[in-house]
UniProtKB/TrEMBL annotation:
Organism of provenance: Fopius arisanus
Species classification: Eukaryota, Metazoa, Ecdysozoa, Arthropoda, Hexapoda
Keyword Transmembrane set for record: no
GO molecular function ontology, one term from the record: glucosamine 6-phosphate N-acetyltransferase activity
Broad EC category: transferase
UniProt protein name: Glucosamine 6-phosphate N-acetyltransferase
Pathway membership, UniProt: Nucleotide-sugar biosynthesis; UDP-N-acetyl-alpha-D-glucosamine biosynthesis; N-acetyl-alpha-D-glucosamine 1-phosphate from alpha-D-glucosamine 6-phosphate (route I): step 1/2
Length: 195
């Protein structure tokens, strides 16, 4: 869907109330092939009001989320927003006013490669009742194009073995000699890491 920047800005202003904030400027998603309003679905940045649209429950279909209160959600939202480099996108089903898909691009600032930017794809999830409708694909391709727009030199991810075919369909490759994900699990979570 082609829209001018002005039209896009006024559209966002029209649908957002004073206490609603986007995590990042919505126009970064303009002219990416991700606008599916004709199907009643919209890809957009995470918003403060998504706490009431099932965002946390959706993440619960990805992993253990814990009990996150509204204040905790808003604190983390604003901390991500002020830190920059966090691009959480959601798919909203406009008919029911629910967030039914989400994914995140984290942009890492490097010194290497002439102070390059590297993207990481995180937390891809589609609500169970909406799976198999190409929405996972829509989320990943949107993140890939956003990474390109932000001039990341590469986009990487970790995933469960069973999801390797899903990401291969979408253009990710296990590079020979460079296909290992390693983790060190930290037992006790310090107060600092909760900030
Ligand atoms: C993985 C997930 C995001 C896929 O979402 P989805 O909306 O059902 O996927 P799509 O409909 O966009 O599928 C796109 C393509 O990938 C394929 N695909 C989907 N899931 C797959 C899987 N687990 N393994 C292999 N291929 C898969 C589809 O068949 C489709 O292929 P096609 O284009 O040839 O038709 C979804 O199953 C999910 O939320 N799972 C739980 C959370 C999770 O594990 N997230 C990944 C964390 S790394």
């Amino acid at each position: 869907m082609m829209r001018t920047k002005k039209a896009s800005a006024s559209r966002n202003a029209a649908i957002m109330s004073d206490d609603e904030h986007d995590l990042f400027p919505a126009n970064l998603l303009d002219r990416l092939p991700n606008q599916r309003q004709e199907n009643g679905l919209l890809v957009r940045p995470l918003r403060t009001t998504d706490y009431d649209k099932g965002f946390i429950q959706l993440l619960g279909q990805l992993t253990d989320v814990g009990h996150i209160g509204r204040d905790q959600f808003l604190n983390r939202f604003h901390s991500m927003k002020s830190a920059g480099g966090h691009y959480v996108i959601v798919v909203e089903d406009l008919e029911v006013g629910k967030v039914i898909g989400s994914s995140t691009l984290v942009v890492e600032q490097k010194f290497i490669h002439n102070c390059a930017l590297k993207g990481r794809l995180e937390d891809v999830v589609v609500n169970t009742t909406y799976r198999g409708k190409q929405l996972g694909k829509l989320l990943v391709t949107t993140i890939a194009q956003l990474a390109k727009r932000l001039q990341c030199y590469k986009l990487s991810l970790d995933c469960r073995d069973r999801l390797i075919p899903f990401y291969e369909i979408l253009g990710f490759k296990r590079e020979p000699g460079n296909a290992n994900a390693m983790n060190m699990r930290i037992e006790a979570i310090s107060e600092q890491s909760r900030l």
